[in-house]
Amino acid sequence: MTHGESTGDHNSLDRQPYEYVIIGGGVHGTCVANYLLDEGGYDHGELCLVDPHERLLASFATKARQCGMQTLRSTFVHHIDTEPFSLDSFAEGAHREHELVPTEDYPNRPTLDLFLDHARYVIDRRDIDACHRQSTVTGVTRSRTRGLLRVDTSRGSLDARRVVLAVGLGGQPTVPSWAASLSDDARLAHVWDDDFDPAAAATFDGRTFVVGGGITAAQLACHLSKRTDVTLLSRRGLEVELTEADPQWINWRHIEQEIHSLPPGSAARYDRIRAARHDATIPPYVAHRLADARDCGDLDVRCGEIDHAHAADGRLQLRFDDGTTATDVQVVLATGHDPAPEHPLVGTLAESLSLERGANGFPVLNDRTLAWRRTDGADSALYVSGALAEMSVGPFARNVVGGRRAAERLLEPHDQVNSEATASLSKGQS
Ligand SMILES: Cc1cc2nc3c(=O)[nH]c(=O)nc-3n(C[C@H](O)[C@H](O)[C@H](O)COP(=O)(O)OP(=O)(O)OC[C@H]3O[C@@H](n4cnc5c(N)ncnc54)[C@H](O)[C@@H]3O)c2cc1C
């Protein structure tokens, strides 16, 4: 038996608990682990990063490849390391400066390969893999040992002083109602299906409809159009925006002024964040890629919606809202995810730990520490990063930079001793 672990219903007083268990080894969980190791002064035995994938960041890397993404939308200073120019130095050291792509009116952006190779370099340098436990968290409850949380995983339980929830966008891929009743053998896929393979989709003989109006749909349409006939079907005209929100939302003081001034968990906060996010938009360089593919005759862009779909003998037929039809086609949905609060763990944890949920089911957090508030008003020892922290971290919460903001909050000296976490949050500052 090692640090903080328990496989049975033992009293775990005789085992040392983890200082932090991080649920999710994606961009955010790995970034938080790196900060805790580097700036927090924790050692590997004190942290556990639980994720079902074989490799950290696998979820992001797979999604990026599934939609044919070539470059990040964010800048070279947004990565999982603690030092802002780390990726820049890495590119220079590896003679890969050409992978920092110049962008009009914006700092350079890394290629996907550069971003991922740099992340791997950070993981190897800090040996973050040593903290990775390949399993899935099924629940978190109060441990029998006072002040500790018990994290149940598919490979036994872990005791921790604090838990960080970093499970990403959360919900299931969104499927429109006309697609929900199609049989499993219909030529219909969602770009975020675990088994979606763009290379296989590109071998289809007929026309492929990519449904969606955001960056994922546009990138995928361009990618597939190199090898097959593609129509990008968007409900409305495509909207162009360079970034997911105005860059001022990266600034914590701006978030304090604009978001924290509104009641925690309120609909007013939710509405302000939704209004600030440029959801379902494409950046100019993707718009140019689309226009080039269109000019070459590789791609159509169509405004409209599918009303009805029918599959028979493996052939898919579509009827559009303007009454026209298409036969023997394939459809790839790029219609996003269900909202983050629909991740199954959110409801489970809220119930087992009596945690407060606000507008649209989002966790209500302490804005300063990102501790999820209990229904009795006290802070729990469960902290939140990523899309689920949007109500406190603002419109960039889900983005790479949101992981850094969350890590900084965790490491900030806390003047009050938390009701569940009895130790100071940063060893380096204790
Ligand atoms: C294609 C794509 C491109 C993007 N490009 C950019 C960009 O250029 N710039 C930018 O800033 N942002 C970008 N984003 C947004 C954001 O940075 C990514 O979504 C990022 O992956 C979010 O990190 P995360 O850790 O919150 O989620 P993820 O990276 O998805 O990681 C969440 C992890 O939690 C794990 N998990 C879930 N449930 C459990 C459980 N019960 N137990 C254990 N583990 C669990 C999952 O397996 C997953 O590995 C992009 C997103 C996508 C999808």
User: What is the fourth-level CATH superfamily of the largest domain?
Assistant: FAD/NAD(P)-binding domain
Number of helices: 13
- Number of DSSP E strands: 18
Largest sheet: 9 strands, mixed
Shape: globular
Spans of 5+ residues with little confidence (pLDDT < 50)?
Answer: 8-14, 415-430
InterPro entries: FAD/NAD-bd_sf, HpyO/CreE_NAD-binding
Domain FAD-dependent urate hydroxylase HpyO/Asp monooxygenase CreE-like FAD/NAD(P)-binding: 21-168
Organism: Haloferax marisrubri
Pfam family, one: NAD_binding_9
Please characterize this protein's 3D structure.
The protein is an alpha/beta fold. The protein has 2 domains: 5-171 and 339-429, 3-Layer(bba) Sandwich (FAD/NAD(P)-binding domain); 177-243 and 279-333, FAD/NAD(P)-binding domain. It is 27% helix and 21% strand. The chain is built from 13 helices and 18 strands. The strands form 3 sheets. Strands 1, 2, 3, 6, 7, 8, 9, 17 and 18 form a 9-stranded mixed sheet that branches. Strand 14 and strand 15 (315-320) form a beta hairpin. The protein is globular. The model is unreliable at 8-14 and 415-430 (pLDDT under 50). It binds flavin-adenine dinucleotide. Residues 23-29, 50-53, 59-60, 63-64, 67, 69, 72-74, 78, 136-137, 166-169, 216, 345, 386, 398-401 line the site of flavin-adenine dinucleotide. Residues 21-168 form the FAD-dependent urate hydroxylase HpyO/Asp monooxygenase CreE-like FAD/NAD(P)-binding domain. This is Thioredoxin reductase. It holds the Pfam family NAD_binding_9. InterPro entries: FAD/NAD-bd_sf, HpyO/CreE_NAD-binding.
